[in-house]
Amino acid sequence: GKGGIGKSTVALNLAQALSRLGEGVAVIGCSPKSSLWDFWGLSDKKTLLDLERYGGVSPANINESTLVKEDGIIYAESGGPEPGVGCGGRGLQVALTRLSENSDHVPGLKDVAYYIYDVIGDVVCGGFAMP
Protein backbone atom coordinates (compact mmCIF):
# COMPACT_ATOMS: atom_id res chain seq x y z
CA GLY A 1 0.00 0.00 0.00
CA LYS A 2 0.98 3.61 -0.40
CA GLY A 3 2.65 5.64 2.30
CA GLY A 4 0.61 6.71 5.30
CA ILE A 5 -2.03 3.99 5.20
CA GLY A 6 -0.87 2.21 8.36
CA LYS A 7 1.59 -0.51 7.33
CA SER A 8 3.95 0.36 10.18
CA THR A 9 1.07 0.57 12.66
CA VAL A 10 -0.13 -2.90 11.66
CA ALA A 11 3.42 -4.29 11.83
CA LEU A 12 4.04 -2.88 15.31
CA ASN A 13 0.64 -3.96 16.65
CA LEU A 14 1.16 -7.48 15.29
CA ALA A 15 4.57 -7.57 16.99
CA GLN A 16 3.00 -6.50 20.29
CA ALA A 17 0.26 -9.13 20.05
CA LEU A 18 2.73 -11.93 19.31
CA SER A 19 5.03 -10.79 22.10
CA ARG A 20 2.16 -10.82 24.60
CA LEU A 21 1.53 -14.43 23.58
CA GLY A 22 5.09 -15.21 24.62
CA GLU A 23 6.56 -15.39 21.12
CA GLY A 24 9.97 -14.06 20.18
CA VAL A 25 9.52 -11.23 17.68
CA ALA A 26 11.78 -9.04 15.57
CA VAL A 27 10.59 -6.09 13.49
CA ILE A 28 12.82 -5.19 10.58
CA GLY A 29 12.33 -1.75 9.08
CA CYS A 30 12.81 -1.94 5.32
CA SER A 31 12.46 1.72 4.43
CA PRO A 32 15.38 3.60 2.92
CA LYS A 33 14.10 6.56 4.96
CA SER A 34 14.56 4.72 8.31
CA SER A 35 10.94 5.32 9.31
CA LEU A 36 11.08 2.75 12.12
CA TRP A 37 13.71 4.78 13.98
CA ASP A 38 11.70 7.93 13.33
CA PHE A 39 8.65 6.24 14.88
CA TRP A 40 10.59 5.63 18.11
CA GLY A 41 12.03 9.16 18.07
CA LEU A 42 15.51 7.79 17.36
CA SER A 43 16.28 9.60 14.12
CA ASP A 44 19.99 9.74 15.04
CA LYS A 45 20.23 5.95 15.54
CA LYS A 46 22.34 4.16 12.95
CA THR A 47 20.91 1.75 10.41
CA LEU A 48 22.50 -1.47 9.24
CA LEU A 49 23.51 0.21 5.98
CA ASP A 50 25.04 3.14 7.90
CA LEU A 51 27.31 0.65 9.63
CA GLU A 52 28.02 -1.14 6.35
CA ARG A 53 28.96 2.14 4.67
CA TYR A 54 31.35 3.24 7.41
CA GLY A 55 33.53 0.24 8.15
CA GLY A 56 31.11 -2.66 7.93
CA VAL A 57 28.71 -4.42 10.28
CA SER A 58 30.52 -6.44 12.94
CA PRO A 59 29.90 -8.14 16.29
CA ALA A 60 31.41 -5.05 17.92
CA ASN A 61 28.91 -2.58 16.41
CA ILE A 62 25.77 -4.55 15.46
CA ASN A 63 23.92 -3.29 18.55
CA GLU A 64 24.36 0.29 17.35
CA SER A 65 21.74 -0.53 14.70
CA THR A 66 19.37 -2.67 16.76
CA LEU A 67 17.06 -1.99 19.67
CA VAL A 68 15.63 -4.42 22.21
CA LYS A 69 12.64 -2.89 23.99
CA GLU A 70 11.49 -3.83 27.50
CA ASP A 71 8.82 -6.11 26.03
CA GLY A 72 11.58 -8.18 24.38
CA ILE A 73 10.75 -7.16 20.82
CA ILE A 74 13.88 -6.65 18.74
CA TYR A 75 13.97 -3.83 16.21
CA ALA A 76 16.42 -3.22 13.37
CA GLU A 77 16.34 -0.76 10.50
CA SER A 78 17.93 -1.52 7.15
CA GLY A 79 18.27 2.08 5.99
CA GLY A 80 19.04 2.88 2.39
CA PRO A 81 21.83 3.67 -0.01
CA GLU A 82 23.10 7.19 -0.45
CA PRO A 83 20.62 9.12 -2.63
CA GLY A 84 21.35 8.57 -6.30
CA VAL A 85 23.76 5.73 -5.56
CA GLY A 86 22.73 2.09 -5.57
CA CYS A 87 19.40 0.36 -5.25
CA GLY A 88 17.29 0.34 -2.09
CA GLY A 89 16.22 -3.24 -2.68
CA ARG A 90 19.79 -4.42 -3.07
CA GLY A 91 20.67 -2.48 0.08
CA LEU A 92 17.92 -4.32 1.92
CA GLN A 93 19.44 -7.64 0.88
CA VAL A 94 22.86 -6.56 2.18
CA ALA A 95 21.36 -5.30 5.46
CA LEU A 96 19.45 -8.53 6.12
CA THR A 97 22.54 -10.60 5.31
CA ARG A 98 24.66 -8.59 7.77
CA LEU A 99 21.99 -8.92 10.46
CA SER A 100 21.91 -12.68 9.95
CA GLU A 101 25.71 -12.96 9.98
CA ASN A 102 25.87 -11.13 13.33
CA SER A 103 22.73 -12.57 14.95
CA ASP A 104 24.70 -14.25 17.75
CA HIS A 105 25.60 -10.78 19.02
CA VAL A 106 22.08 -9.33 19.25
CA PRO A 107 20.47 -10.37 22.54
CA GLY A 108 17.43 -12.58 21.90
CA LEU A 109 17.67 -12.64 18.10
CA LYS A 110 18.43 -16.37 17.97
CA ASP A 111 15.16 -17.02 19.87
CA VAL A 112 12.92 -15.12 17.43
CA ALA A 113 10.01 -17.12 16.05
CA TYR A 114 8.46 -14.29 14.00
CA TYR A 115 10.18 -11.73 11.79
CA ILE A 116 7.92 -8.88 10.74
CA TYR A 117 9.14 -6.78 7.83
CA ASP A 118 7.87 -3.21 7.75
CA VAL A 119 8.10 -2.63 4.01
CA ILE A 120 7.75 0.46 1.86
CA GLY A 121 4.58 1.11 -0.09
CA ASP A 122 5.99 1.30 -3.58
CA VAL A 123 8.51 -0.57 -5.67
CA VAL A 124 11.02 2.10 -6.57
CA CYS A 125 13.52 -0.25 -8.20
CA GLY A 126 13.80 -3.89 -9.22
CA GLY A 127 15.71 -4.83 -6.08
CA PHE A 128 12.55 -4.69 -3.97
CA ALA A 129 10.86 -7.16 -6.30
CA MET A 130 13.58 -9.82 -6.03
CA PRO A 131 12.37 -13.25 -4.93
UniProtKB/TrEMBL annotation:
Q: What SUPFAM superfamilies does its record include?
A: P-loop containing nucleoside triphosphate hydrolases
Q: Which GO terms describe its molecular function?
A: ATP binding; iron-sulfur cluster binding; metal ion binding; oxidoreductase activity
Q: Tell me the cofactors it needs.
A: [4Fe-4S] cluster
* InterPro entries (alphabetical): NifH/chlL_CS (IPR030655), NifH/frxC (IPR000392), P-loop_NTPase (IPR027417)
Q: Which PROSITE patterns match?
A: NIFH_FRXC_1, NIFH_FRXC_3
Keyword tags:
ATP-binding, Iron, Iron-sulfur, Metal-binding, Nucleotide-binding
In which family does this protein belong, per the annotation?
Belongs to the NifH/BchL/ChlL family.
Tell me which PANTHER family the record gives: LIGHT-INDEPENDENT PROTOCHLOROPHYLLIDE REDUCTASE IRON-SULFUR ATP-BINDING PROTEIN
Q: What is this protein called?
A: Putative nitrogenase reductase
Q: Which organism is it from?
A: uncultured microorganism
Q: Which gene produces this protein?
A: nifH
